[in-house]
Amino acid sequence: MSSLSVVILNWNGIAHLRRFLGSVVECTPPEADIVVADNGSTDDSVEWVERTYPTVRIVRLDRNYGFAEGYDRALRQIGSRYYILLNSDVEVTPGWTEPLLRMLETDDSIGAVAPKLLSAEQRDRFEYAGASGGFIDSGLSVLPRADAVIHRARLRPVRRPSRGVLGKRRRNGLPRRAVS
Predict the structure, then answer these.
(1) What is the CA radius of gyration of the chain?
(2) Count of Cβ atoms closer than 10 Å to residue 18 Cβ
(3) Cα–Cα distance, 28 to 117 (Å, whole number)
(4) Pairing of strands 57-61, 80-85
(5) Three-class SS state of 57
(6) Does residue 12 contact residue 41 with C-beta atoms inside 8 Å?
(7) pLDDT at 152 (0 to 100)
(8) Does the global pTM surpass 0.85?
(9) How far apart are CA 57 and CA 7, in angstroms?
(10) Which residues pair with 85 in a beta bridge?
(11) DSSP of 79-115, one letter per residue?
(12) Among 8, 45, 88, 132, which is least packed, fewest CB within 10 Å?
């Protein structure tokens, strides 16, 4: 069993693989497994990976299961202590896995970590996929600094209500109260 597997879910993504997989292979520690989990692609992406990067493991799924189920099915076929689920359109840099693994190794209560992502077009700006409306970069953020987010990503026990996740329902199907 590997200590770390970098898993990239792919569906007809040969253009992204051609552009970004090289950085993953070059910048990932040699002891880590790099896996392309293919979601039933019909393009030449799997064959291209096999020809270009023979050390990259391929997990072939029989059809496109979508994002969550695709990863779920792929991870069941990979034995590893830690998994990095990496989008196929991400360029990584040397040393990119070390801070993530160091954080996981220092505290057993941490179940997930995420790196800072910089925009490919504006490399001095964070990639936030619209989540904060650009406030991260403007200095007007009401959110904690990105390096502080990882430190606060600790698992907390979840209080479960006795009657389902959203509690008792009204006749119209809407919950009476939300449970935090």
Answers:
(1) 19
(2) 13
(3) 16
(4) unpaired
(5) strand
(6) yes
(7) 31
(8) no
(9) 9
(10) 7
(11) -EEEEEE--TT----TTTTHHHHHHHHH-TTB-----
(12) 132
> How many CB atoms sit inside 10 A of residue 11's CB?
20
pLDDT band at 131 (very low <50, low <70, confident <90, very high): low
Are 109 and 155 contacting, i.e. CB atoms less than 8 angstroms apart?
yes
Structure tokens at 147: 């390096």
pLDDT for 1 equals 65
For 54-66, give the DSSP string.
TTSEEEEESS--H
Phi and psi based region of residue 12 (left: phi greater than 0; alpha: psi -120 to 50; beta: remaining): left
What is the average per-residue pLDDT within 73-77?
A: 96
Report CA-CA distances (Å) from 155 to 42, 73, 112: 39, 24, 8
Pairing of strands 57-61, 33-39: parallel
Lookup result for tokens 């009204």? 170
Q: Which amino acid is at 38?
A: D
Give the residue from 41, 49, 40 showing the smallest Cα distance to 17.
49
Q: In what order do the strands lie in the sheet with 33-39?
A: 57-61, 33-39, 2-10, 80-85
Indicate the residue type of 15.
A
- The first and second tokens of residue 160, run together, are 């479960």
pLDDT at 28: 96
Residue ranges of the alpha helices (H) in the chain?
Answer: 14-27, 45-52, 66-75, 98-106, 135-138, 146-151
CA distance 35 to 37: 6
CB contact at 8 A, 12 and 43: yes
